[in-house]
């Protein structure tokens, strides 16, 4: 081991980037090595594809498809390869640009499975493809064993890191009327129902318009301020090296040359997504009882509605001027354990159209130990890591939640006097919000993998981050929570590093 750093971070998505930023701000003299299995993509590290010129965007989408890198995945639909996992996967939107399907192992015969489970591999992770919806969880979605004020502070920092705006539309009349109509329908569901609001969106707004933010915004000018910061792309972490319950480094592989080498570090953070974080722990011999268990994603219903004239708007207004906004019907414990989003096309960053709205409704999955991702001792995936198989079933309660998703989406469209054109229950994994597979817990009782700072039980120096640490059943988009939990975990980790304390720069 000729190379030695203070901390190795595995994964360069929003969560890995948050660890790097918070540690770098607190300890600017530190050596921070971020390793990313996927390649660099055009632009500054972690730049959202939406911000790229069209040719860079196309190149970034092809580069980040892991084993399908460079292959136009629309072919998957034509060959029926995706549909063989689940007939619903025929639908165009389910093999998404920039992602690759888990494929074999995503669904076991006779189970609901996660046929649509996908990943992305490139600098910035899924955070260069995501949509930026950043609602805070409510009620039972929140993590009960983290003091509420600490959690709220972490969310405030996460909002600043991701540039989350609460009402990008300002005084836009169409969005105001749409929110009011939906509030009139849903706010009365119970006296304490979470009110209908505009979706908080991670976006940078300037004279060039509104653009989704992501890892490049989180990292900011870290590379200039922290000389010991390095982001090493095309570098797979094969194993965390652990001796006697203490981390002492990582084993890395250059994807370009196949060279395998080790880097010494007493702190390793694994933020490699909710499938590959438990995979790397498994490969490293860290196999607590809960590893891979309680995996869940949001039950998802998507649709489209034609809006009446009262909610139609001219979509030809150019983007810098056009207001942006999505109405949010939030999760409300015991009242409405789903989250609904209504995206009027005329106010969308993503699509255009004068008179229709997209619907994205998510339900909280009932958590079960039996829902799990398991890893093979002998079979390998395309990266040479332990192959995965997902076991995932629906419960009676989930079926009731699916009914609630359908009735809520129908109510939302009726409240707008719209005409529902389509409403489809998506196959497992479609939400791209896999969670819980290295969940945190208040105690090492076999039901969790780490504590509330992401510290893996009984392995000194090993921290995990990502949607995988979320322990609760949620319907809210998870990234803002994972970034908030990473802020809190990174602050704790920075305290442990040897350098003299320095005031953290405000973010
Ligand atoms: C189209 C789309 C829309 C989305 N919209 C939203 C939304 O509106 N709101 C929301 O909250 N979420 C959304 N998401 C989900 C969001 O992108 C993820 O929650 C988020 O990116 C997770 O961040 P992460 O850093 O934990 O993981 P990722 O962003 O997945 O990054 C993990 C990185 O780790 C790397 N890695 C894995 N294994 C290894 C290894 N062994 N060695 C080295 N590197 C490794 C991977 O290559 C990857 O780049 C969306 C996702 C997509 C694709």
UniProtKB/TrEMBL annotation:
Sequence ranges assigned to domain Glucose-methanol-choline oxidoreductase N-terminal in this UniProt record: 206-299
Keywords assigned: FAD, Flavoprotein, Oxidoreductase
Signal sequence residues: none
Family per record: Belongs to the GMC oxidoreductase family.
Residue ranges occupied by any Glucose-methanol-choline oxidoreductase C-terminal domain in the UniProt entry: 378-486
SUPFAM superfamilies documented for this protein: FAD-linked reductases, C-terminal domain, FAD/NAD(P)-binding domain
Keyword Transmembrane helix among record annotations: no
Cofactor field: FAD
UniProt name for this protein: GMC oxidoreductase
InterPro entries: FAD/NAD-bd_sf, GMC_OxRdtase_N, GMC_OxRtase_C, P2Ox-like
Taxonomic superkingdom: Bacteria
């Amino acid at each position: 081991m000729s190379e030695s750093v203070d901390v190795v971070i595995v994964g360069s998505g929003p969560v890995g980037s948050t660890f790097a930023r918070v540690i770098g701000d607190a300890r600017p003299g530190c050596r921070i090595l971020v390793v990313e299995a996927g390649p660099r993509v055009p632009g500054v590290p972690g730049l959202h594809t939406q911000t790229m010129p069209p040719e860079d965007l196309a190149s970034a989408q092809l580069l980040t498809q892991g084993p399908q890198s460079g292959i136009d995945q629309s072919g998957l639909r034509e060959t029926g390869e995706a549909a063989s996992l689940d007939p619903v996967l025929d639908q165009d939107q389910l093999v998404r640009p920039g992602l690759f399907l888990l494929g074999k192992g995503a669904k076991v015969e006779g189970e609901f499975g996660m046929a649509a489970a996908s990943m992305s591999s490139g600098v910035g992770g899924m955070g260069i493809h995501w949509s930026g919806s950043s609602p805070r969880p409510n009620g039972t979605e929140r993590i009960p064993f983290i003091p509420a004020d600490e959690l709220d502070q972490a969310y405030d920092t996460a909002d600043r890191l991701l540039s989350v705006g609460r009402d990008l539309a300002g005084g836009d009349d169409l969005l105001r009327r749409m929110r009011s109509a939906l509030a009139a329908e849903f706010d009365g569901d119970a006296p304490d129902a979470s009110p209908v609001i505009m979706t908080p969106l991670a976006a940078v707004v300037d004279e060039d318009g509104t653009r989704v933010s992501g890892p490049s915004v989180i990292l900011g000018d870290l590379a200039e301020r922290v000389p010991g910061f390095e982001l090493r792309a095309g570098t797979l972490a094969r194993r965390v090296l652990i001796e006697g319950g203490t981390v002492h480094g990582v084993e890395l592989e250059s994807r370009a040359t196949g060279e395998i080498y080790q880097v010494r570090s007493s702190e390793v953070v694994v933020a490699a997504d909710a499938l590959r974080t438990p995979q790397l722990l498994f490969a490293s011999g860290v196999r607590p009882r809960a590893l891979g268990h309680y995996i869940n994603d949001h039950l998802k219903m998507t649709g489209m509605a034609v809006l009446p004239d009262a909610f139609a708007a001219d979509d030809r207004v150019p983007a810098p001027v056009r207001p942006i906004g999505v109405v949010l019907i939030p999760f409300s414990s015991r009242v409405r354990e789903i989250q609904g989003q209504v995206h009027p096309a005329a106010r969308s960053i993503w699509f255009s159209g004068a008179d229709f709205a997209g619907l994205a409704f998510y339900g909280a999955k009932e958590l079960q130990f039996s829902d799990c991702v398991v890893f093979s001792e002998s079979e390998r995936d395309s990266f040479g890591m332990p192959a995965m198989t997902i076991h995932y079933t629906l419960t009676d309660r989930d079926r009731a939640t699916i009914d609630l998703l359908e009735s809520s989406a129908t109510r939302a469209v009726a409240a707008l006097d719209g005409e529902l054109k389509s409403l489809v229950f998506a196959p497992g994994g479609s939400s791209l919000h896999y969670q819980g597979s290295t969940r945190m817990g208040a105690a090492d009782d076999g039901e969790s993998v780490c504590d509330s700072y992401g510290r893996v039980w009984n392995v000194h120096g090993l921290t995990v981050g990502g949607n995988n640490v979320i322990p609760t059943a949620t319907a809210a988009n998870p990234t803002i929570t994972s970034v908030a939990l990473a802020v809190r975990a990174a602050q704790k980790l920075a305290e442990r590093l040897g350098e003299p304390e320095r005031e953290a720069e405000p973010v």
